[in-house]
UniProtKB/TrEMBL annotation:
Name used for this protein in its record: ABC transporter ATP-binding protein
GO MF annotation, one: ATP binding
Organism of derivation: Evansella alkalicola
Record carries keyword Nucleotide-binding: yes
Pfam families referenced in this protein's UniProt entry, alphabetically: ABC_tran
Keyword tags: ATP-binding, Nucleotide-binding, Transport
Amino acid sequence: MHLKLVDIHHSFVEGIEHAKVVNGVNLSLEKGEFVSIIGPSGCGKSTLFNLVAGLEIPMEGEILLNGQSVNGQRGHVSYMMQKDLLFPWKTVLENVLLGATVSKENVREAREEALSLFPLFGLEGYENNYPTVLSGGMKQRAALLRTFLHKKELLLLDEPFGALDALTREKMHEWLLDIWSQMQRSVLFITHSIDEAIFLSDRIYVLTPRPTAVLQEFNVELARPRTKEMTLSDEYLELKQKLMKALYR
Ligand SMILES: Nc1ncnc2c1ncn2[C@@H]1O[C@H](COP(=O)(O)OP(=O)(O)OP(=O)(O)O)[C@@H](O)[C@H]1O
């Protein structure tokens, strides 16, 4: 799996005007990489994900997956949108199976696989409960399980932990990295948190305000597995400072 965005431009029609949102974005993701995208609020991050997922068609540029243009094509990524809510009238199991059901995969097989993953996602025993009984972290893990069950090698995660408290969020980081290393998927991750981006990623793209483009790209040289102690290292703090400079310049 190799994803490449080549000079992507995109606008939305607002009244009779075209409002430019994406202004020549170039970025890439290699197989197995964890790459974060960080940028000012409203700069166009979710729009970029919608373009990669084929929900929007770029006005200019190419989205290449393994060298093939996938502009406007759907079904090649697992996408967890920012407001990826669970349906309150469906059980947790029914909710996580939604993607599999919609795409008409073998339902029984998907069900068995989902059940086998409940412990790993910390949801064991809640299969037949309704989402109202889940904590915030558990709801996000259920939405993530639904995304993982889509089975695409590339995962797009749009601020999956944005609504969680700091402590739950930190626990989710370690948990997500653990899952990611076990499941061998490539992740493109949107966040507003510099710490989250550094802790999770191999690389980080900092975007400019709207109309957005890549301002700067950073490599995260910290070893894996990542530990909380690393967040106090000189390497970590230096990178954090550089990212802050880029973001708040
Ligand atoms: N379908 C649409 N039609 C018109 N304008 C849109 C549409 N989708 C997004 N926009 C506009 O594009 C801009 C970028 O929105 P987008 O959601 O991509 O930003 P974002 O960086 O993900 O924001 P946030 O950080 O707040 O999540 C915003 O000004 C938004 O109003």
